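Support request, please re-run this one:
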Amino acid sequence: MLQAVVELLDNQKLIIYPTETCYGLGGDATQVETVEKVFRVKRRSQTKPIHIAVSSVEMARHYVKVDDRAQTLFETFLPGPLTLILETRGVLPRALSTGRNTLGIRCPDHPIPQQLIEALGRPITATSANLSGQPPTYTAKEAMSQLGDAIAAIIDVSRLSYCPPSTVLDLTSKPLRLLREGPIGEAALLEVLGNA
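Re-run finished. Output below.
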């Protein structure tokens, strides 16, 4: 089954996949048409960036600049529910970052997206499987009821345990900005960064 889903991603199709937080909407993050499709399907504003999911810090380095602080956070919290905003290398579609020079990067702590990304050899989009403005989805049925016909495949692992969406930390701003506090709290981040 995994290989069939990878082939769909390779052919610019969209999928719904589980993560350690909620269900995600995945497409090949290196393809302009696929990224544009994600925006359309979610009805997401073109001013709101879409993050990407990678399988390792080594993969991340191809797409963003990983400084010492980011490396420390990767080693401490990833894979896990943390999205880091880092300076982009400019090799991915500009639509992902809505013209900014930054990009959100995440490494899910769930075997399915890990295996998909490794098999594809490229990052996939890391955005929740719901219409923009709606709450995250924790069952495949909820996700499909919102996104429907545009989805080529769904990896249904039944209801996910409730977990808020990932913590989002902007490492490019001065001072650092916690854009969304999720499962990893501000105190834990500050402790690690303080020791870095």
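The longest helix spans residues 32-42. Strands lie at 14-18, 23-26, 51-53, 80-87, 102-107, 124-128, 151-154, 167-170, 177-180.
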